[in-house]
């Protein structure tokens, strides 16, 4: 528990930091876990306590916290060229190589890459690219953005407007023109007597009705996470992408796959769109892109969009957009190494091999009378807490039950994430079978303490 002495790390954290995305009553009562170092999938706090991080940092530390290849790559690149931009006709050699690599590992034959510092900025950039493109092609009215309720796309004013979470109303968001479609979570939103196929068809019909109502010529693009992550790990209802993609194609609406979480192996394939068998027009990447060792995001434009956007830029002799650290050479060097580590050091394979074990552990814990559903894909999993299993009635109360479970997990030495009424597990790709067993044992202990 928290050390409340005025000069403790916990008190200092609480005095000088404005916590984001943190349950403040919990952190005031318990103190922050002030982390000093990490090893493999474990982190250690200022008291020397060890925690198995089943949250992979924030979905991103897939290679663990002390991968020597990644830290050595970073050190070597800091010695060669510690920073640079990608503008004014200059660009680091690492940036050139990473763009080639990203197009090579993408589902696209050809393409172009634009770099940002985060996933939010990558989504924001993609929206600007679409607005730029449509205006250049004589359709400046094509500005509306379609996303889904419960989808998460970031925190900048634009990406937060894309995010379908009620908390954004405290900022007066979403901005006008950001339209949220239904969340494809059959267990929660399926109507009585409705089959999963009928549910999917209903969402597809809602999409088409929305496009017609808004006017296809007013819509700039459709953004979706293959599996909703921060929405509480929601894999789409069966056949979802096969149902919505043809509708979007019919109306010529660009499809953007937000792969910030799913990308680079988390769902068992390199891309989430691969897992769900659709080819988007562009991919948004971040997090796993550098295995969390550098803050970086990327917009990967597929062949057709890349050609059209390039033509639009050529027409005015410039694409007027970018961040000081776009294409940072250290970030790019780390990303090149991270892609190699995930693909060629057995990490992606470990996800595929241990997924059945992961799913079995989730299914076993879902037998608990207060767990209504387990769901997941690859190394993304969630357990949804319910007060009444038969009626799927959620808990209420100011401190959510998932927050209480996550706090109890922290006490047992396990970091996992409360999201809505669910507990989310997204272990690093390096986790072993034994460490996965430890994760489930600790979670089971926490459940016993809460219920
Ligand atoms: N898109 C998705 C799917 C995400 O999960 C996130 C962050 O969790 C973002 C975008 C935003 O990325 P960042 O936090 O790096 O701005």
From TrEMBL:
Gene3D superfamilies linked: Aspartate Aminotransferase, domain 1, Type I PLP-dependent aspartate aminotransferase-like (Major domain)
UniProt keyword Transferase, yes or no: yes
Biological-process GO terms, alphabetical: biotin biosynthetic process; gamma-aminobutyric acid metabolic process
PROSITE patterns: AA_TRANSFER_CLASS_3 (PS00600)
TM region positions: none
InterPro entries: Aminotrans_3, Aminotrans_3_PPA_site, PyrdxlP-dep_Trfase, PyrdxlP-dep_Trfase_major, PyrdxlP-dep_Trfase_small
Region forming the signal peptide: none
Keywords: Aminotransferase, Pyridoxal phosphate, Transferase
Example GO molecular function: adenosylmethionine-8-amino-7-oxononanoate transaminase activity
Cofactor(s) the protein needs: pyridoxal 5'-phosphate
Family: Belongs to the class-III pyridoxal-phosphate-dependent aminotransferase family.
Name used for this protein in its record: Adenosylmethionine-8-amino-7-oxononanoate aminotransferase
